[in-house]
Write a structure and sequence with these properties.
Blueprint: E1 7-13, H1 21-32, E2 36-42, H2 48-57, E3 62-65, E4 79-80, H3 82-87, E5 92-96, E6 99-103, H4 106-116, E7 125-129, H5 133-144, E8 149-154, H6 157-166, E9 173-177, H7 181-189, E10 192-195, E11 221-224, H8 233-240, E12 244-246, H9 249-264, H10 270-283
Parallel strand pairs: 1-2, 1-3, 4-6, 7-8, 7-10, 8-9, 10-11, 11-12
Antiparallel strand pairs: 3-5, 5-6
Helix pairs in contact: 1-9, 1-10, 4-5, 4-9, 9-10
């Protein structure tokens, strides 16, 4: 029951009506017995400052941030977590004592996919496919976990080079075009391969990155950040090569669970969050 003491959480974006966060977060809040409610809060693209300051002044506990505001919101905040600062993107804001702190829980969510399978990353050779926002979070997660090297495969060489340069001080990071022989060589010796592009996502399920799957190390762990469909064509072909595969379901649930913890101080039931996600996807 919503009362005068119920605390408000939400997600801002443009658009935001497609977000599954309200369904997942409200299920977890109810299960934990917490007096909060989580809502989708559409914000016009030209109204971000007034919306953010209005939410702060209204006394809400915090909110998630989605496209197109993950970077634009940074100048409006009072402080950033290390992950948000390194990735240069915020997906969670905590409001306390009139101040707003930005976090990026995608790194925690991404690493949870490996932790759930008890896969250690220290010393591993990694290949990252793509150089967008999701790639930044995955790259920082890999480097933070002490992989020995990361090779980034891209269509746009300049974009890949810029990403590699941004993180050059944090480890051995190189970027190559998909057609470069150096990229094929990296695939042959990779322990970890992470697919961060939207290629293969519903409804374009037959799409996949232009990767020579015959070059893929059969003993590699292959991780696709997409969660719908549950198995992309990329994962299906990797599994056929003998690779262990991971989809994006745990990442989505775990990044939401970390935001929940930051707002409430309580760790939610992540299995409940994953089951709620599956049910919501079946109904959509």
């Amino acid at each position: 029951m919503i009362t005068g003491t119920t605390k408000l959480l939400g997600v801002i974006g443009a658009p935001v009506g497609h977000s599954l966060s309200p369904v997942i977060q409200n299920a977890a809040l109810h299960d934990a017995g917490l007096d909060y409610v989580y809502a989708a809060l559409p914000v016009r693209a030209d109204a971000l400052p007034s919306a953010v300051y209005g939410l702060r002044d209204a006394g809400i506990a915090g909110f998630n941030v989605t496209i197109p505001f993950k970077t634009e919101i940074i100048p409006l905040l009072d402080d950033l977590s290390e992950d948000a600062r390194r990735i240069h993107a915020v997906n969670t804001v905590v409001i306390a004592d009139g101040g707003m702190v930005g976090y990026n829980t995608d790194v925690v969510g991404f690493l949870a996919g490996f932790a759930e399978r008890e896969i250690a990353l220290t010393g591993k050779k990694a290949v990252l496919i793509g150089a967008g926002g999701a790639a930044r979070a995955a790259l920082w997660g890999l480097l933070r976990s002490n992989v020995s090297s990361v090779v980034i495969g891209v269509r746009n060489a300049a974009k890949g080079a810029a990403l590699a340069t941004d993180f050059a001080a944090d480890g051995d990071v190189r970027a190559y075009h998909f057609d470069d022989s150096a990229f094929a060589a990296a695939l042959r010796f990779a322990d970890i391969v992470v697919q961060t592009t939207p290629m293969g996502m519903t409804p374009h399920t037959e799409e996949m990155p232009p990767v020579d799957m015959a070059a893929l190390n059969p003993s590699a762990v292959v991780y696709d950040l997409i969660y719908t469909p549950a198995e992309t064509r990329f994962l299906r072909e990797a599994r056929a090569r003998g690779c262990e595969t991971i989809n994006g379901e745990t990442m989505l649930a775990a990044q939401g669970a970390e935001a929940f913890r930051l707002w409430t101080g309580v760790r939610p039931d992540m299995e409940l969050m994953k089951q709620t996600l599956r049910t919501a996807l079946q109904c959509s």
